[in-house]
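User: I'm curious whether this sequence folds into something compact or stays loose and floppy. Could you predict its structure so I can see for myself?
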Amino acid sequence: MPSTKNYRSLHAQVMARPGAAERLAALREETLAEIGLYELRRALERSQADESA
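Assistant: Here's the prediction. I'll summarize afterward.
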């Protein structure tokens, strides 16, 4: 049976590392940009493969 860990405990461990807040902020921005591209493609009914052709 897999063991589970408390999210707050894991979050605290990650945030305790030097530069963690900056790395997480950058990852969040990248993720939001990707979501934006997905939404745009969906609205235009285009796929990522269509754009490279």
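Summary: The chain has a mean pLDDT of 85. The longest helix spans residues 20-44.
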